[in-house]
Design brief:
Elements lengths: L1 H15 L4 H8 L3 H13 L4 E4 L5 E4 L12 H18 L3 H17 L16 H17 L1 E8 L5 E14 L2 E8 L4 E6 L3 E9 L7 H14 L1 E8 L16 E3 L5 E8 L2 H8 L5 E5 L1 H18 L2
Antiparallel strand pairs: 1-2, 3-4, 3-7, 4-5, 5-6, 8-10, 8-11, 9-10
Organism: Clostridium tagluense
Protein name: DeoR family transcriptional regulator
Pfam families: HTH_11, WCX, WYL
């Protein structure tokens, strides 16, 4: 832990140029005397840290001394800095994460010209403020084995209370999720953050050791159990866009220029909405049960506009 603090102190001073001992003590939540000892040890290791006294004074690294690039080359740094830029916005004032960001911002100062051709946005337009707050709470809950309590909006727009034991934060298909054991449903669940409201920390829980592979298997088996095989027919006009929604091995081009997609989907309200999102370019071929449900669904929509 002390070695990590040494490196972070060095990075902070390098990044900011001039830092007071008191500011370092507050950042690491240690005494000023501890910072004095740390600076002394860093200097003994050969890093030329100097100090100026009085108002506006502090510690600085002497000229012509630069930190190396942490063994990363320019091409490796580029995507990492793009990711860090975005995550810094999302994580807000997370002390642990901000120490990591400082290290990458130091790299930016030396490699800036090589790091401007990639941009990544993992925020969500409808909940930027909440996302930062929730990511902080979820990280804290996972690190400290704390319960998370929140309201979860289901597809019926009902607000359901959830009390969970968090395991992992996931970003996939453009959305953030918290993977956790739901103490109410007594099962492992994946909660989409855009549906979460009023998240707060609860008490400490005893961590259940489960691997990522086991979690993945549980979700995979649950998906297959609640899914049906669906066959969809698409017009030639939309064919070029299908790879945005389906894996290429699921798409078949017919001789007449139309496309067939066969894949498993959860049998719920979201499936009908997903299909309708393609408008007149998509037709349900099977199963017949789903085709009939789509007919009724479309009739119900039509009735609302048929004055």
């Amino acid at each position: 832990m002390r070695a990590e603090r040494f490196l972070s102190i060095l990075i902070i001073i390098s990044q900011k140029g001039l830092v007071t001992g008191r500011a370092l003590a507050e950042h690491f939540e240690v005494s000023l005397r501890t910072i004095y000892r740390d600076i002394e040890k860093i200097s003994e290791a050969g890093v030329p840290i100097a100090a100026t006294g009085g108002k506006g004074g502090g510690y600085y690294i002497m000229e012509n001394y630069t930190l190396n690039n942490l063994f990363l080359n320019k091409k490796e740094i580029e995507p990492l800095i793009a990711v860090m830029d975005n995550l810094k916005f999302l994580f807000g004032n997370n002390p642990q994460f901000n120490d990591i960001v400082l290290k990458f911002e130091t790299l930016r100062n030396t490699e800036k010209k090589e790091c401007d051709n990639l941009s990544i946005d993992m925020s969500h337009f409808s909940m930027e403020k909440e996302l930062r707050e929730y990511l902080f709470l979820m990280n804290k809950a996972i690190e400290e084995n704390r319960i998370l309590e929140f309201e979860y909006i289901n597809r019926k727009m009902e607000y359901l209370k959830r009390v969970v034991e968090p395991i992992q934060i996931e970003f996939t298909d453009g959305h953030w999720y918290i993977i956790a054991f739901c103490t109410i449903r007594k099962d492992y669940r994946k909660f989409k953050l855009v549906r979460v409201r009023n998240m707060k920390l609860g008490g400490v829980f005893k961590k259940n050791l489960i691997s990522k592979e086991e979690i993945k298997k549980i979700f995979s088996e649950s998906y297959e159990k609640n899914s049906i095989l669906v066959t969809l027919k698409f017009s030639s006009e939309i064919g070029g866009q299908l790879s945005e929604y389906f894996s290429k091995e699921k798409i078949t081009l017919l001789e007449n220029g139309t496309y067939i997609v066969e894949d498993f989907f959860p049998e719920d309200e979201g499936l009908k909405k997903f299909i309708l999102g393609f408008g007149n370019d998509c037709e349900v071929i099977g199963p017949d049960k789903l085709r009939k449900k789509m007919v009724e669904y479309i009739k119900n929509i039509y009735s609302k506009y048929n004055d």
